[in-house]
Amino acid sequence: MTNKNGKGLVQIFTGNGKGKTTAALGTILRAAGHGLKVFIVFFMKGDYEYGEFNALPKLPNVVIRKSGFRQFTDPLNIKPEEKEQAESALAAAREATLSGSYDLVVLDEVNVALEYKLIESAEVIKLIEDKPPHVELILTGRYVDNRLIEMADLVTEMVKVKHPFDKGIKARKGIEY
Length: 177
Ligand code: ATP
Ligand code: MG
Prior knowledge:
By secondary structure, the protein is an alpha/beta fold. It has one domain (10-167): P-loop containing nucleotide triphosphate hydrolases (Rossmann fold, 3-Layer(aba) Sandwich). The protein has six helices and six strands; from the N terminus they run E-H-E-H-E-H-E-H-H-E-H-E. It has a six-stranded parallel beta sheet, with helices on both faces. Helix 2 links the parallel strand 2 and strand 3. Helix 3 packs parallel to helix 5 (121-130). It starts with 9 loop residues before the first strand and ends in a 20-residue tail after the last strand. Residues 16-22, 109, 142, 158, 160, 163, 165, 171, 176-177 line the site of adenosine-5'-triphosphate. Magnesium ion (MG) binds next to helix 1.
């Protein structure tokens, strides 16, 4: 089934408030409910126990691709294997986008991977340019490149008003991961 609206757009969820990845996940839930085919690639998330890694494959027509390592990426000390993982994840997203097999492709935390120079912005720009018209693309992560903002149809900046982290409440299983 192809995207019933015919036209696929480019959406970006950015900013330093919570809700970027979960907004993308919510869209996936909605798309899957209408029989759209979904591919999501996670940058820099490795084998951490995110609930979505378990739940997404249970949805019809949703394929996930994880990349990265369990430990956090240190932007001041990028390892070659971290770049390799991110580059191969981007290649997988490109293949899925161009394959014609998916209606919605999500690149979760791609903006952070760009900021950390794990991947080239020219490659992401090319992906947007080459995307078949019916494919909806969602890019998430704080920091966003201005060229991507210009190319996008929808950009939402999550603004932090309060976050429990600021009063020492650590990430909770099932809520933050
Ligand atoms: P979520 O996955 O909950 O939608 P997010 O994608 O907007 O969050 P990221 O920037 O990817 O947030 O942050 C990763 C983790 O940091 C998440 O567990 C998130 O809850 C948490 N987080 C988000 N915003 C903040 C913040 N302003 N301060 C501290 N932690 C945050
Ligand atoms: Mg996120």
